[in-house]
Structure formats: structure tokens, C-alpha cells
Specification:
With about 475 residues, the chain is an alpha+beta fold. The protein has 11 helices and 17 strands. α2 runs antiparallel to α11.
Length: about 475
């Protein structure tokens, strides 16, 4: 007993947290309010600090990629909306131009309906002509448009007059005056023509057989300077007036050359003209879903999907539609995304593993093809051996040049591998850091509230004493 009493006395003398007797203290309303506030703050901060302790954050570092593997696996599942499997070919090329598809590669073609319900239909010859002309019209630059709209009056008028057929089919209707400078009748008619051009060309409205409003472009063709063009057009006499339509056909004006007769001729001819209204549509009865894996060298390269001849049947390049939907595209192991999700990798990183999945890439015109550019970056989680690959994606629609319209468009996927690698390091608070932070928060909150309460009580007492003296 004496030993425990001595120990108790020693510990009592050591006490640095001595308790003030309640007889020497008093409770106040202000103190009670601040105590309630302190308890609420302590609970709130305790919950926040506990959540931070249980939450795992990630720190990323950029290092040189240590991967020394020579091959990379590409997983793909791509649906071609309007290209049958028998015409579809998959090819892979690396930066050195060598094809790298081996016989053992695992991929296959699955015939599917191009729309799911509707069947495709073939383009008519007239639709192809009209759509090609519309595509050409929307592709010209401002300088080219000025050249197409200008008169063929001279070979030295600063315009490059080279394609007469393009000029007369650039608009829905084009009225051309074929003349010769030495022709007396041409010189007499030039006054009427100039007045008519100022009143009619691109200004006066006409109505075609479909009830659609349209205008007429008026051009002059100098058959002295451009004799070869007039000879090819078969001009028998001067002046000759022809009304050209967008499809290249024309009607000849054969009346007295007055403004009223010209307007009457245009009104009648256009009113009896049925312009072909065409739009791009699915042509084939089926599409094709190509899926599988490829193992390619770890160097920049691309793989592409394009149409090729099947047996003794060739595909018209103008009609090749490589619109597609990417059901899946990833690099590395097929289940890399699931591994990343199980590892609680940040969501913004997971979305970069398969950024193209479920996206459609549609072209609306002939001789066009979607092109994809992928930058692939390996990503490692510290402490785990598995690797997954993030990628950035940009795309554009490539328009084949006029001189290359015999080439079939390609749906191309170009990839490049970054020499850098992202290392993801999980980061969380250690237990002693949690306790240190918790005690600091609790002590600091208690001290601040206690000081605030004391200050408010002192001010309140001073105000009351002052008011008592005044009374």
C-alpha cells in the first residue's frame, strides 16, 4: 500500500494538466454557445480527417519507358457501315514501309446489315454525276470560284481558263455566249448581252419543273482565243447561245437575239427542266464487322481498312464508303481496362485506355476517308507488374485529290509509341500522420474556440459594467 501511495503521489506531482476546482469557475451562456460550436466543428473535422485517411490518392511521375518488348498487341473491333466483307481488306504497315501481317494473326470478318433494318440501294448514273459536281463545287477555293465565274474573253485576263466543262457545270444553269471578235453580228449582240447579263446573271429568279427557285450564270466564250475549246464543243456559227445544265447537257437558243426573247427562252427551258436531287446513301446490302488482335513492331506505323477487288469484280473507288464505328480499340492486354479499374486508377486515366470505343466516324461525300492519329503511352502502377496503355486521339477527314480519285479511300489508324512512360504511385496517409493531424486539429480547434469565448465574455462584461456606471 505504501508503494502504490508513493507512486500515486509521484504521478500527482508530475501532473501538467491540473484541474481547476469547479468552485473557482462558473458557467456562462456565451461559453455554452461556443462549446456547442466547438463540438460541432470537432465532429465535422474528425469526419473529414478520417475520410482523408481512408482515401487513396495517386501521384504520377514521367520516366523513360523501360519496356524492351519488340512487339505490341492491338485489339480492335470495327464496324464498316457500308462495305461488304468480301471487298474489305485489312493491312498493316510500319514506318519502314514493310507489311507486317503474319499468317497467325487472329482476326476475322463478320457480315452484318449496314443499318440493322434497311437494305442499301445502288446509286444511279445521274446521282453519281450530280453528287460529284456538288462535291467539286464545295471544294473550290475563292480564287478557283472567281476563275470559274469569269468570262472566257481572253487568254491574258489573269485567269487560268483550262476546264470549260467545269465552268459550265459549276452552277445549276449556265448561259454561254460563243462569239468571235471579227463577227459583225457578235458585236451588235454584245450590247444586248451586256444589258441582259447585268439584269439576269445570278440575279433574276427562275422556277424549275420541281418548283424550286434557281438562277442562271451568264458567261462569254471568245472562240478566237479559245478556238480549240469551241471546236471541241462543236460550235457551228457565231454568235451561238447555249444553256448548260449541271449534268453537262444543254439547249440551244434559236430565236431573235433580244433581251425579252432570251428571258423567255430561259424561263421556258428551266421550267421544263427536272434537276436531279441526290444525296449520299448506303449502297450495299451489308456492312462488315472486323475484329481480332494484331501484333505489330513497337515502331510508328498504321493499319487501314479499304476496299479491294474480289474475284473478277472491281469496286468503283468513287462509291467506296469507309464510314465506320469503333466498337473497341486498345493496345496491350485485352483486359487492361478491367485491371486499371480494379487498381482504382483515376477515372480520367481509364477513359484514355479506350477513347474511341462506341464512336462513329461518318463521311458524307465521295473520295473521303476518316483518318485517326494515336499517340500511345505506357502506364505502370508502382508495385504491380501489369502494364496498361493510354492514348490520345485526333482525327480528320481526308479528301483525295482530283488526280487521285482512282484510288480507293482508306479508314486509316496511324499510331506512334511514346518513349516516355507514366508511373502511377498510390499515396495515402500513414496511421501516425493521421493521429498527428487529428490531435493538431482537435487541440487547435479547442484552443481557438476557448480564446474566442474568453474574448467575447470579457467584452460582454466590460460593456455591462460600463452601462451600470452610466446608470
Amino acid at each position: 500500500m505504501s508503494g502504490s501511495s508513493a507512486l500515486s503521489k509521484t504521478l500527482s506531482n508530475l501532473d501538467q494538466f491540473r484541474v481547476v476546482s469547479r468552485d473557482l469557475t462558473r458557467g456562462t451562456l456565451t461559453g455554452g454557445v461556443f462549446t456547442a460550436v466547438a463540438y460541432a466543428l470537432l465532429v465535422l473535422l474528425l469526419i473529414a480527417e478520417l475520410g482523408a485517411f481512408l482515401r487513396t490518392t495517386y501521384q504520377t511521375n514521367i520516366v523513360m519507358d523501360p519496356n524492351e518488348e519488340s512487339l505490341m498487341q492491338i485489339n480492335f473491333d470495327i464496324l464498316m457501315h457500308d462495305l461488304p466483307c468480301k471487298f474489305l481488306k485489312l493491312r498493316v504497315w510500319d514506318k519502314f514501309g514493310e507489311e507486317r501481317i503474319e499468317q497467325g494473326e487472329q482476326f476475322h470478318y463478320i457480315p452484318v446489315d449496314s443499318t440493322g433494318q434497311n437494305k442499301g440501294m445502288a446509286y444511279t448514273k445521274e446521282e453519281i454525276s450530280v453528287l460529284e459536281q456538288v462535291d467539286v463545287q464545295t471544294d473550290v477555293t475563292e480564287a478557283e470560284k472567281k476563275a470559274l465565274d469569269s468570262d472566257w474573253s481572253s487568254t491574258s485576263d489573269n485567269f487560268k481558263h483550262s476546264d470549260f466543262q467545269a465552268a459550265v457545270t459549276f452552277h445549276d444553269f449556265t448561259l454561254v455566249n460563243f462569239f468571235a471578235e471579227w463577227c459583225v453580228h457578235c458585236r451588235k449582240f454584245s450590247v444586248v448581252w451586256n444589258d441582259a447579263a447585268g439584269k439576269i446573271s445570278d440575279k433574276m429568279k427562275f422556277t424549275d419543273a420541281n418548283g424550286q427557285g434557281t438562277t442562271v450564270k451568264m458567261l462569254k466564250m471568245n472562240c478566237v482565243d479559245f478556238g480549240d475549246k469551241c471546236q471541241q464543243a462543236g460550235i457551228p456559227a457565231f454568235p451561238t447561245l447555249r444553256l448548260y445544265k449541271r449534268d453537262g447537257s444543254f439547249e440551244v437558243f434559236q430565236n431573235k437575239r433580244t433581251m425579252d426573247n432570251v428571258i423567255s427562252f430561259l424561263t421556258t427551258s428551266i421550267r421544263n427542266s427536272h434537276l436531279i436531287v441526290a444525296k449520299h446513301h448506303a449502297m450495299f446490302n451489308e456492312g462488315c464487322q472486323v475484329q481480332g488482335t494484331l501484333r505489330v513492331p513497337r515502331v510508328p506505323g498504321h493499319f487501314h481498312l479499304q476496299a479491294e477487288a474480289f474475284g473478277d469484280v472491281n469496286v468503283n473507288p468513287a462509291l467506296t464508303n469507309v464510314s465506320h464505328r469503333v466498337n473497341h480499340l486498345s493496345f496491350g492486354e485485352k483486359d487492361a481496362k478491367k485491371f486499371a479499374e480494379r487498381s482504382n486508377i483515376p477515372a480520367e486515366m481509364i477513359t484514355h485506355i479506350t477513347p474511341l470505343d462506341g464512336k462513329n466516324f461518318i463521311v458524307d461525300r465521295f473520295h473521303e476517308a476518316p483518318q485517326h492519329y494515336l499517340k500511345v503511352v505506357s502506364t505502370h502502377v508502382q508495385g504491380k507488374s501489369a502494364v496498361f496503355y493510354q492514348m490520345t486521339h485526333t482525327d480528320r477527314v481526308r479528301r483525295l485529290r482530283k488526280e487521285n480519285t482512282t484510288l480507293a479511300p482508306q479508314a486509316r489508324f496511324t499510331y506512334d509509341f511514346s518513349p516516355m512512360s507514366v508511373v502511377v504511385k498510390p499515396k495515402s496517409k500513414r496511421w501516425y500522420e493521421f493521429l498527428t493531424s487529428l490531435f493538431a486539429i482537435l487541440g487547435g480547434t479547442y484552443t481557438i474556440v476557448e480564446l474566442t469565448s474568453g474574448a467575447v465574455d470579457t467584452v460582454s462584461t466590460a460593456v455591462k459594467d460600463a452601462m451600470g456606471k452610466n446608470n
